[in-house]
Amino acid sequence: MVFQSMHAATICSFVAVEMVAFLSGDHHIQYLMPQQNWSISSLLWAILAGALITLIAIN
To answer: What does the alpha-carbon distance between residue 59 and residue 50 come to, in Å, rounded to a whole number?
Structure first.
């Protein structure tokens, strides 16, 4: 149960991090890009945020 919650929160936070980057102008429109360049720092922030969201949701 906890692992599923953490997994879902990590995916949601990763999407949120990338959406903020897109809206702030760091990314171009997806179909104009040859390939999406995912950074390791956004993945690490997503994992940390997913763990934090899970801890908040459980308590």
So the answer is: 14
Distance of alpha carbon 7 from alpha carbon 56, whole angstroms? 14
pLDDT score of 34 more than 70: no
Rounded Cα distance, 6 and 24, in Å: 27
For all residues of the chain together, what is the average pLDDT?
A: 71
Q: How many helices (H) and strands (E) does the chain have?
A: 2, 0
Whether 50 and 13 have beta carbons less than 8 Å apart is answered as yes
Give residues with Cβ within 8 angstroms of 50, minimum separation 6: 6, 7, 8, 9, 10, 11, 12, 13, 14
The domain ranges of the chain are 6-18+39-59
pLDDT score of 26: 60
